């Protein structure tokens, strides 16, 4: 009995330490300082910030060079029997992609298609930022909501071409419509890449806020996917006086309290799940499912490479169009549905259509932007710029809507989402993958309208 009493003070020490660190980790960080940094080459200087009309026009020289490279592609290494797309894209499929790109894809037609929406360039903080800006033509009785939509990687503004006309057209039963602004993120396609280190989602948020300010929007709505989702989350934390409401089809919870809550649901999937979520309770056990973790390790090699050595990889991808296609298309297979890795055609044609996929690859190729686009991984995860991590750890107070897709990279129950989004007013669930704007555009558009309808009624 005496011995037990003697042990009590000793046991109290580790318990107190655990409690101290848990409390410390649960506490939200302070808002990091940010400024209007100059991201262009050289020292800050005056740049005309006039908004200039822009049209995609690719020189004959670039197109001839592309044709030559495609026609002189070295023999592709035969795939190992039974690997399908588990070692990367299967070269049997890649050979068909090469044939289509060389012989059937018509850039003249596609250039006209890509130019269907009004496009512009404007200099923001030393960078020329490219954006699509579509204003709806509606009577004054219809309210127009300014909506900033941000893409991610391996995507581009091309992801949004199917949803833009649907969002700018009045929907039956709704008294509002959207004025859509879709920029190319810094370093993507026709937007300049930063000339100095630090352009992660934190500083990209400042650029995007200033773009909207330059367009005359002091307050606006945001929607994002992939890196775009990360950026609109950061904007919602940093500028709650600017962002009225946030919708995302990849809501992310990078907070310690969220990790703990997610683990509870993983071990006890029926704990506090609502009736609708109970139907897909298997989704919430992923954080303790070893097969899921092995799959994620297997499929996130690109992430580690781009977060550490984007420039080395960029040299190879910039030099070979079919190499670029192989690298990007493999992500469209894997991130759409894991089981598609085991299907010969990866369901690419059926899900997206080869023309749309080559459109996306062309935006990387003709602008030479693959290296600068991949740098966002290194810049965001660099310990030199802790603002990215600090913003991730701060909850979002503006009204939020999360469209969850079963085969996406991340998937959270509502209770976990509410750790990051305490003002969560909409959380939906659909059967699709990481690129819903391309895969199921009508589903995504309906969800966006449904969320903002709730926002209008607040």
Automatic annotation (TrEMBL):
What InterPro entries does the record point to?
AB_hydrolase_fold (IPR029058), Epox_hydrolase-like (IPR000639), Epoxide_hydro_N (IPR010497), Epoxide_hydrolase (IPR016292)
Q: Which domain of life is it from?
A: Eukaryota
Q: Where in the cell is it found?
A: Endoplasmic reticulum membrane; Microsome membrane
Name of the protein: Epoxide hydrolase
Positions of the catalytic residues = 226, 377, 434
Q: Tell me if Disulfide bond is a UniProt keyword of this record.
A: no
Keyword field: Aromatic hydrocarbons catabolism, Endoplasmic reticulum, Hydrolase, Membrane, Signal
Q: Which reaction does it catalyse?
A: cis-stilbene oxide + H2O = (1R,2R)-hydrobenzoin; 1-(4-methoxyphenyl)-N-methyl-N-[(3-methyloxetan-3-yl)methyl]methanamine + H2O = 2-{[(4-methoxybenzyl)(methyl)amino]methyl}-2-methylpropane-1,3-diol
- Identify the stretch annotated as signal peptide in this record: 1-23
**Family listed:** Belongs to the peptidase S33 family.
One family from Pfam that matches here is EHN
Q: Alphabetically, which GO biological process terms does the record hold?
A: epoxide metabolic process
Q: Which leading EC class covers this enzyme?
A: hydrolase
Function recorded in the entry: Catalyzes juvenile hormone hydrolysis.
Residue ranges annotated for the Epoxide hydrolase N-terminal domain, each copy included: 51-160
Give GO cellular component annotations, separated by semicolons.
endoplasmic reticulum membrane
């Amino acid at each position: 009995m005496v011995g037990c009493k003697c042990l009590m003070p000793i046991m109290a020490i580790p318990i107190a330490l655990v409690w101290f660190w848990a409390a410390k980790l649960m506490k939200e960080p302070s808002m990091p300082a940010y400024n209007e940094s100059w991201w262009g080459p050289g020292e800050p200087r005056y740049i005309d910030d006039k908004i200039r009309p822009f049209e995609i026009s690719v020189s004959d020289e670039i197109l001839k060079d592309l044709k030559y490279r495609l026609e002189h592609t070295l023999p592709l290494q035969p795939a190992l029997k039974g690997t399908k797309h588990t070692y990367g894209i299967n070269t049997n499929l890649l050979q068909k992609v090469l044939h289509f790109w060389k012989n059937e894809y018509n850039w003249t037609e596609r250039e006209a298609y890509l130019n269907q929406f009004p496009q512009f360039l404007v200099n923001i903080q030393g960078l020329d930022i490219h954006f699509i800006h579509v204003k709806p033509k509606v009577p004054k009785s219809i309210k127009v909501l300014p909506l900033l939509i941000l893409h991610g990687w391996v995507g581009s503004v091309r992801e949004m071409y199917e949803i833009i006309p649907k969002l700018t057209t009045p929907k039956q039963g709704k008294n509002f419509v959207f004025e859509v602004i879709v920029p190319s993120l810094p370093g993507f396609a026709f937007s300049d890449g930063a000339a100095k280190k630090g352009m992660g989602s934190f500083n990209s948020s400042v650029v995007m806020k200033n773009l909207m300010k330059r367009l005359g929007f002091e307050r606006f709505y945001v929607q994002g996917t992939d890196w775009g989702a990360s950026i609109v989350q950061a904007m919602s934390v940093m500028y709650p006086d600017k962002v009225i409401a946030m919708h995302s089809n990849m809501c992310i919870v990078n907070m310690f309290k969220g990790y703990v809550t997610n683990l509870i649901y993983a071990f006890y999937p029926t704990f506090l799940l609502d009736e609708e979520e109970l139907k897909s309770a298997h989704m919430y056990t992923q954080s303790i499912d070893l097969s899921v973790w092995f799959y994620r390790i297997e499929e996130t090699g690109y992430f580690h490479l781009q977060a550490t050595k984007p420039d080395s990889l960029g040299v190879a991808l910039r030099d070979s169009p079919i190499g670029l296609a192989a690298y990007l298309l493999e992500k469209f297979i894997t991130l759409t549905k894991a089981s598609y890795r085991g299907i010969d055609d990866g369901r690419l044609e059926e899900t997206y259509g080869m023309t749309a996929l080559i459109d996306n690859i062309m935006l990387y190729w003709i602008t030479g932007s693959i290296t600068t686009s991949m740098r966002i991984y290194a810049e965001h995860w660099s310990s030199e710029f802790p603002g990215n991590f600090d913003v991730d750890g701060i909850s979002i107070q503006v009204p939020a809507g999360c469209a969850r897709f079963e085969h996406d990279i991340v998937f959270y129950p509502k209770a976990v989402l509410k750790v990051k989004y305490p003002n969560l007013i909409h959380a939906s669930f659909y059967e699709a993958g990481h690129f819903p704007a391309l895969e199921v555009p009508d589903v995504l558009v309906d969800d966006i309208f449904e969320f903002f309808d709730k926002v209008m009624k607040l």
